[in-house]
Amino acid sequence: MVALHSAVGGLVVLAFVVVTILNILRVTGRDLPIARTISMIAGALLLIQYILGFLLLGAGFRNSMAHYVIALLAILTVGMEHGYAATRDTSRQRAVAATIATLATTILVLIAYMIGMGGAATTPAMLLP
Question: Relative to the CA of 54, which of 2, 5, 116, 129 has its CA 20 to 30 Å away?
């Protein structure tokens, strides 16, 4: 399960990098309707990642508190992209807000991934001091 969580984590990072690039292209004026679909896929991968993480917690595996806090902060930035950005008046304003939100999400999930890959996630809680 730890290996699956790590693999999905890598996919989450990759997906949000792609969404950020697509949103940057939207800011330049390109019409990319596929960006919304890919963003939803990235959000679904993040949800799967959360579920896997909670299953690992339930099985007794632990990681640093920073891993959990940073990972959960991504809920806010994804919400900003899917909620706040959609309320902007022009397509350029929506693209700029979405780009800022997805860039923040990308940074957060990358940091959480790097912390998680530090090795603490593979240590069952009962073995920690």
Answer: 129
